[in-house]
Specification:
single chain; 149 residues; alpha+beta; Thiol Ester Dehydrase, Chain A; five-stranded antiparallel sheet
Length: 149
């Protein structure tokens, strides 16, 4: 499989999460799918930072379901670790958006997971629907401005 390149850039939203015992697997490390929830937390913070809380988009009749994801696991997180989540908007079209995310251990800065989630814009009936022009205008101001590794 071809190696995917995932870069991060400003502006980014930052948030933190403490690993719950229920987030871990029998091996004592954070279960792989849990990182998608952490990515979701990062996206939520990013959208709030833009002044576009996801709940407000839903009220206006728009949903952004996940259509593709990629996660690259670098190191494990464990129960009670404090994690830093950084999220940026890497791509935007009228019908979709792609967020890049990385999760690091807050104590030592070690990268744990990096990846992306790609979302379509649909209405409550499930039909692909362009995002409103005012939403696109705001989000364009928050697109990645450069590339960081």
């Amino acid at each position: 499989m071809k190696k995917l390149r995932m870069t991060m850039a400003e502006p980014m939203a930052s948030s933190q999460v403490r690993v719950l015992y229920g987030d871990t697997d029998a091996g004592g490390v954070v279960y792989n799918a849990t990182y998608l929830r952490y990515f979701e937390q990062g996206r939520g913070e990013f959208m709030r930072d833009c002044g576009l809380p996801y709940k407000d988009l839903e009220t206006r009749g728009y949903i952004l379901p996940l259509v593709e994801s990629y996660l690259r696991y670098k190191a494990p997180a464990r129960y009670d670790d404090l994690l830093d989540i950084e999220t940026c908007l890497a791509e935007l079209t009228p019908f979709s958006c792609r967020f890049h995310c990385r999760v690091s251990n807050s104590a030592d800065g070690r990268l744990l997971v990096k990846g992306f989630t790609h979302h379509a814009s649909i209405n409550w009936q499930g039909k692909l629907t362009a995002l409103p022009e005012d939403v696109i205008t705001v989000l364009q101001g928050y697109l990645c401005k450069g590339h960081l590794k």
